[in-house]
């Protein structure tokens, strides 16, 4: 259905190009400005609600895209993907925001630019997509892996194993700096509580990501499919997987045609 495909594509674009960047920027603003004395009353609480809504939006958007690509998956799998993706963007956005807040004002931009360059390098090395397309795909990959888990490894712009290995290494490096600067956070009064809560949520969401990821990955391998046939309908897929390309009705009609031909030849021979 064209309308359904269009809706799922819009939800994917909204998730990776609006909700994910919005969550990171709002967390950064909350840590740097909203917890200070100059911020209006209730600004931090409002930002927290908006960030939570962005996490949910990213999880649902990527799960719906996964369901659109592989329609044979169960509702349980789609719900697990939504939860895993929400943990993923929460882990990434919270860790980046904490790191950027401690390295304000230039750490935020340097972290994004370096990760963008690293994603481009992985795209070029894997050679699954054209470089011009990779320039665009690398942008959302800075925050979240947007491609469906059910795709084969060779169909990903950046394979999932390489992507999450990079995320683990970056997480360790950033948290080494965060722990090193912990005395600066503890010395703040009201702001310190907000920082500590974000740090706790970052660790919890990271743990949730790497607990749910192996379970989702195992199920995705059972429903693996090529990127080239991701848009097959159920009937088309069934016909494409049929070896000879003939249906039972075709075989029966061809058999009856042969029977009529033999009867005609018999009558001709008798008449002669």
Explain the layout of strands and helices.
Layout: H1 2-34, H2 43-69, H3 75-102, H4 107-126, H5 131-141, H6 160-180, H7 182-186, H8 190-222, H9 234-241, H10 248-271
Helix pairs in contact: 1-2, 1-3, 2-3, 3-4, 3-6, 3-8, 4-5
Quick one: biggest sheet? none
Shape: globular
Q: How far apart, in Å, are the first and last alpha carbons? A: 59 Å
* E-strand count: 0
Task: From the alpha carbons, calculate the radius of gyration and give it in angstroms.
Answer: 27 Å
Low-pLDDT residue intervals, each spanning 5 or more residues:
230-254
State the share of residues found in helices, binned by percent.
over 70%
Beta percentage is under 5%
H-E string: HHHHHHHHHH
- Mean pLDDT, nearest integer? 83
Q: Which structural class do you get from the secondary structure elements?
A: mainly alpha
Q: Given the structure, what is the number of helices?
A: 10
Overall description:
This protein is mainly α and 272 residues long. Helices cover 77% and strands 0% of the residues. It contains 10 helices and no strands. It is globular and about 55 Å long. The model is unreliable at 230-254 (pLDDT under 50).
